[in-house]
Amino acid sequence: MNEQNTAQTKSEEQEEVLKEIRQLENRKKILENKQRNEERRVRTRRLIECGAILEGIFPLAPNLSGAEVKAFLIALSHLPGAAELTANLSKSGDTP
After folding, report:
1. What angle do CA 30, 32, 33 make, to 5 degrees?
2. What is d(CA 79, CA 72) in angstroms, rounded to the nearest whole number?
3. What's the rounded Cα separation, in Å, for the pair 17 and 45?
4. Sign of dihedral through CA atoms 54, 57, 63, 65?
5. CB-CB contact of 56 with 71 (8 Å)
6. What is the dihedral of CA 11, 16, 21, 23, to 10 degrees?
7. What CA–CA distance (Å, rounded) separates 76 from 56?
8. Which residue blocks in the chain are alpha helix, DSSP H?
9. Distance CA 45, CA 54 (A)
């Protein structure tokens, strides 16, 4: 009888440990989802801010398609001095 009780106790302990593992795995998934959502929120905010700046500087921007804006920015990047300006901005963190 004692062996049967010991086996049952070990089985119950194992079930408790497995339950705790499942709970921790679920908690991990929840925390990963929260982190991804926060990263997405930060990226979205950054993109909105950059888009607002672009529209403020270039009034035609709201009427352009994404491909047109891309082509416009590529053309700007090929202007003389653009590469140096970009390199200096990324090093110093300053604005022009």
Report:
1. 65
2. 11
3. 42
4. negative
5. no
6. 150
7. 16
8. 2-57, 66-77, 82-92
9. 14
**Type of residue found at 38:** E
Which sign, positive or negative, has the C-alpha torsion 18, 23, 26, 27?
A: negative
pTM value is 0.63
Q: Residue 56: what residue type?
A: G
Q: How far apart are CA 40 and CA 46, in angstroms?
A: 10
Q: Residue with structure tokens 């926060």?
A: 38
Report residue 16 as tokens. Answer: 């408790």
Note the pLDDT tens digit of each residue in 27-46. 999 999 999 999 999 999 99
pLDDT tens, 58-84? 887 778 888 998 998 899 999 999 888
